[in-house]
Design brief:
This protein has one helix at about 40-49, and strands spanning about 10-15, 20-25, 30-35. By secondary structure, the chain is an alpha+beta fold. The chain starts with 10 loop residues before the first strand and ends with a helix. The structure holds zinc ion (ZN).
Length: about 50
């Protein structure tokens, strides 16, 4: 995972958003961002049910 702000790979997980997406926080610039691939993962999980 790469920070969209500074390009650092030093990322901390920072809980989840209200919609259940993984929230992340960059250790370098403290920018918070949501993992862009979470929607695809959720679709795959639905198929397993
Ligand atoms: Zn950053």
């Amino acid at each position: 995972m790469i920070c969209p702000g500074c390009g650092s790979t030093t990322i901390n997980k920072n809980g989840h958003t209200y919609y259940g997406k993984q929230n992340n926080k960059c250790k370098e610039c403290n920018r918070q961002f949501v993992s862009p691939s979470e929607d695809e993962k959720n679709l795959n999980n639905d198929q397993k049910k």
